[in-house]
Structure formats: structure tokens, C-alpha cells
Design brief:
This protein has 222 residues and is mainly alpha-helical. The chain folds into three domains: 64 residues, no CATH class; 57 residues, Serine Threonine Protein Phosphatase 5, Tetratricopeptide repeat (Alpha Horseshoe), CATH 1.25.40; 71 residues, Tetratricopeptide repeat domain (Serine Threonine Protein Phosphatase 5, Tetratricopeptide repeat, Alpha Horseshoe). The protein is built from nine helices and four strands; from the N terminus they run E-E-E-E-H-H-H-H-H-H-H-H-H. Strands 1-2 form a two-stranded antiparallel ribbon. Strands 3-4 form a two-stranded antiparallel ribbon. A hairpin with a 7-residue loop joins strand 3 and strand 4. The longest helix is centred in the middle third of the chain and has 18 residues. It is elongated, with a radius of gyration of 23 Å.
Length: 222
């Protein structure tokens, strides 16, 4: 483990050498705060035992530009408020059962069409990520039905649900349906977003991926 005090802010990530307070005289012990972050530098197999691996770590903090960029990216992916944001974080780390339980509880107390539509969308993501594709489509279609009644056809939130359904159909191998929903998502984003928005690139990439899976490589390159 490497600690370079010049590269971190000790006010943000304090640590202390506590060798003198250890019960074992030869023990070299360092106490870190709970929110300390470490970068994995290298992982090597120990020569004496093939079942053991040595992990080299270096401490870092939010002043690290790479960590800051990663943090900002995760914040964008789990946007939202309160419990909704926690549900997205659970999905991000693969805790699908807990996310589903949370969203079902939120659904019981949801009072607006917007909240209900968003919860159905996230429940669709839960089922999608668990590979339960028919159920995923049902939840996404419920979300879409509510959004179409309450929002304009070019509202950007529709694009996410269209895209989610597209992902499900792609995973099911139903490429024509996947294209249909990906193109709807793209059309909505082209109307609602500036031409350089990264979500447009996501839509183009998804459409290209479907054409690639269909073996239509020239269209995929477009």
C-alpha cells in the first residue's frame, strides 16, 4: 500500500499511524476513515502460493481528476431524489431484489402519474437486468402508457423508456422490435436535445449494435 500525503488532502481523507498503540509490537497499523478510496495499481500472483494474490493499492481522494470524473459519471447515472436515487444505486451495484422491494414500496405511496411512471420504468429495468424480459416489457409499457397520457410526444423522458424496451427486445433476439423502439428513442432525442448531446450518441450506438447483430454491417457502420 502506498500513501503519498502530497497527493491527497488529509483534511478530506485523514489517516493515522497507530503502531505505538497496537497490542502487537511488530505490527505496522494505519487507521483510515470510513470513506477512504484506494486505486488498484497492480494485482500479482504470489510466487510461493498460486492461490494467493497480492494487490498493490494507493490512496486517493476527490481531488484526483480521474476519481472526480468517475464520481460525476455515477451521479449522472443515478440521478433522482431520495429513495428513488437509492433504488438506482441498488440497480447499479446489482442488488436487484432489494431494488425491486424498494420500488414496490414506493409504488404503494406514489401519488402522481410522474412518480408512478418512473417507478414502473425502474421496475422494468430490474426485470431486464435479471433476464426476465417479458415482465420487463410489461412494466415498461405501463410506464409508457402513463407518460403518453401526461406528456407531449417529444418529451425526453419518453426516450429512456423507448430505449429500455429496445434493450429488452435486443436481448431477446427480436431485432426488428428493438430497432422500432430504438428509432423512437432517437427521434424523441433529436427533437428534444441539442445535436451534440451524448444521449444521441447512445441511441446511434444502440441502433448500430442491432444492425451488427443482424449481420447488416454496412448499416451498422452508418
Amino acid at each position: 500500500m502506498t500513501i503519498d500525503p502530497s497527493k491527497i488532502s488529509t483534511s478530506i481523507t485523514p489517516f493515522a499511524m497507530i503502531d505505538k498503540h497496537s497490542a502487537l509490537p511488530r505490527e505496522q497499523e494505519i487507521l483510515f476513515t470510513m470513506h477512504s478510496v484506494f486505486r488498484i495499481v497492480e494485482i500479482t500472483q504470489t510466487p510461493s502460493n498460486s492461490r494467493l494474490w497480492e494487490v498493490q493499492l494507493t490512496i486517493t481522494d476527490e481531488s484526483d481528476p480521474q476519481l472526480a470524473g468517475l464520481t460525476d459519471c455515477i451521479k449522472e447515472e443515478i440521478d433522482g431524489r431520495g429513495w428513488h436515487r437509492i433504488g438506482k444505486l441498488m440497480l447499479k451495484v446489482g442488488h436487484f431484489d432489494q431494488a425491486e422491494e424498494l420500488y414496490n414500496e414506493l409504488l404503494k405511496g406514489a401519488s402522481t402519474d410522474s412518480d408512478i411512471a418512473d417507478i414502473y420504468h425502474e421496475l422494468g429495468r430490474v426485470r431486464r437486468d435479471r433476464g426476465e424480459y417479458p415482465e420487463a416489457v410489461k412494466f415498461c409499457e405501463k410506464s409508457l402508457e402513463i407518460k403518453r397520457k401526461t406528456l407531449s410526444e417529444d418529451d425526453v423522458s419518453l426516450a429512456g423508456t423507448y430505449g429500455n424496451i429496445g434493450i429488452v427486445y435486443k436481448n431477446m433476439g427480436e431485432y426488428s422490435k428493438a430497432l422500432e423502439y430504438y428509432e423512437k428513442s432517437l427521434k424523441t432525442r433529436e427533437i428534444s436535445l441539442p445535436p451534440t448531446h451524448p444521449d444521441l450518441a447512445t441511441s446511434y450506438s444502440c441502433i448500430g449494435g442491432v444492425y451488427r447483430n443482424m449481420g447488416e454491417y454496412l448499416k451498422a457502420l452508418e
